[in-house]
Design goal:
Number of helices: 7
Bound molecules: zinc ion
Helix content: 25-40%
Structural class: alpha/beta
Largest sheet: 8 strands, mixed
Strand content: 15-25%
Number of strands: 8
Length: 238
């Protein structure tokens, strides 16, 4: 494991590289505070993926938001943001006007447990760490694990390559998750949005599990096989 940067409180944001192929995918978990099942899924998959030779290498960042995860876990409150009260998945530089318009509609104008995008794109160290990683490494495709809803988001307007829908459909088939309909207005600021727009390659948001956040730890064992199948498709072919 190595560090791709530090959180607001100075915690290392860790990553692990698996495989030797130059063709590489990225899986990110723990973006939102209450979504810690995604951290477990990313870690478990990292262990299993390492056991077999593959045509696609993977970089796995199990927890992008360690500070927010700690807040959600220890204070047992609904906290999705980072330590600064900025929602990392609204802080990427993609359709920023839409991010701010959506905040106005929701009455959010300052740091908040969720959905506040920050004063400017990439204002947060966690966002910058992931952006830097994607600029330094040529990822063939990326996938961010969130929860919940058992859905797969794949679309970000005109920049989205045509083949991404087919991959989303395959991932849906093996997991029982649904391919989510594109949302023309409610998007922007997310990691997948930024990645698709910046690189014109596939980026996915996968909503793990079904219920109300935070999903209980007891949901993990039953839900993980779905996520594993899906990640195996994501990582299946270069
Ligand atoms: Zn999330």
């Amino acid at each position: 494991m190595y560090s791709i940067g530090k959180s607001v409180l100075g915690r290392d944001i860790l990553a692990v590289d698996i495989g030797e192929s130059r063709c590489r995918g990225l899986v990110v978990g723990g973006v939102h505070g209450t979504e810690y099942l995604t951290i477990l899924a990313a870690l478990k998959f990292a262990g299993e993926y390492a056991d077999e030779p593959r045509s696609l290498s993977l970089t796995i960042v199990p927890c992008l938001n360690p500070d927010g995860t700690e807040i959600a876990l220890t204070r047992k409150i609904y906290w999705q943001a980072n330590q600064n009260g900025v929602d990392i998945n609204h802080n990427f530089d993609a359709d920023w006007e839409n991010v701010k318009r959506r905040e106005r509609e929701l009455g959010i104008s300052s740091p908040s447990p969720s959905r506040y995008g920050g004063e400017r794109p990439e204002s947060e160290p966690e966002t910058r760490a992931l952006v830097r990683l994607c600029r330094n490494v040529r990822f063939e495709r990326v996938l961010a694990l969130h929860s919940q809803g058992r859905e797969i988001y794949w679309d970000f307007g005109k920049s989205t390559p045509f083949c991404c829908l087919a991959l989303a459909e395959k991932m849906a088939e093996v997991s029982g998750y649904k391919v989510a309909e594109p949302e023309p207005i409610a998007t922007g600021g997310g990691f997948k949005d930024w990645f698709i727009e910046r690189f014109h390659r596939c980026g996915f948001t996968v909503e793990m599990g079904l219920g109300k956040n935070p999903l209980p730890l007891s949901d993990f064992e039953a839900e993980y096989p779905r996520v594993k199948n899906l990640l195996n498709i994501f990582a299946g072919l270069c």
